[in-house]
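Minimal example, chain plus adenosine-5'-diphosphate.
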Amino acid sequence: VRNAFRRAGFLPTSSNNFNVLWGKPLKIAEYKELCEYQKVNHFPGTYLLGRKDNLARVCNKFRRVFGSDSFQYLPKTFVLPGERTELLQDYEEWKGKLKKNDCDISYIVKPPAGCRGIGIRLISDPNTQIKEKAVCVVSRYISDPFLINETKFDLRIYVAITSFNPLRVYVHENGLARFCTVKYSRKTRKNRFRHLTNYSLNKQNPNFVKNTNASVDDEGHKWGLKAVWKWMRERQMDVSTVMGKIDDLILKTLLSIEVQINTNMQLAVPCRNNCFELFGFDVMLDSNLHPWLIEVNTALSLASDSPLDKSIKNQLVTEVLNMV
Ligand SMILES: Nc1ncnc2c1ncn2[C@@H]1O[C@H](COP(=O)(O)OP(=O)(O)O)[C@@H](O)[C@H]1O
Ligand SMILES: [Mg+2]
């Protein structure tokens, strides 16, 4: 981020008289102090997407209003302890199918505001494997991921918003694909390196193969997004349909918080152009190439520890700065 700022001709300042602020979300009182020419990299209230419990709540609410048919991109998710009864009912409906598919995993259990795979568990039976009063978010496990080289991966899609009113969304053409470091199987819950695609986790596996050259975007356990699309096109897969579905899920997710954000903007932010934000949408494809939203990151890791990372993230931040 510092490099991109420097290249764009910005100088660091600790004064309040900045042009662009890139950091944590501001407090409401701080938003109120902004001048017309100032830009900050968060809208007030996007924590509604960034926390897993909030994301589930806003999306479930939207789904109840508009019907579930249009919202098939979020795995069924329950916020516990409040929705324990609904979860157990869902399990009754679903367990027959799991058994038929010879699948040992029913749900994935996550801390409500966790990251990097910390505290995540895969379970078979929620009746016995989740404590009565546990505070957690529980989603149906997508047990048939689309695999490359027999390995599960997810996609990091970078999305920049320059305005919520009117909504202006830019989806970066490149991103990252993060691979597991153990071949996939749905028949065993054992081994997090098989089921969780988090880079921070998999890089701890001695098997992890790092990218060494920015121009080779399909080596090792982290690829460029474009390399995944290329791999799929070479195998006659319909990439444009997948991309269209991903755009659709991004827009619907953002629309689900639009009213709250615009209310907060009216209350606290002097000018509608004061804010912009860069989000990381984590998306997983299943074996039918249907994209599922895993989570939305509002506090992105823009650190780069491979040449490919550096090239993609540098370009990303530079383009975001140019746009805003
Ligand atoms: N519903 C799901 N089905 C299958 N795999 C999932 C599901 N949810 C998460 N995962 C896997 O677990 C990883 C961690 O989950 P995530 O929600 O991103 O938590 P964290 O904030 O800890 O990264 C994801 O990157 C993905 O590989
Ligand atoms: Mg994650």
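The longest helix spans residues 239-268. The chain is about 35% helix and 20% strand.
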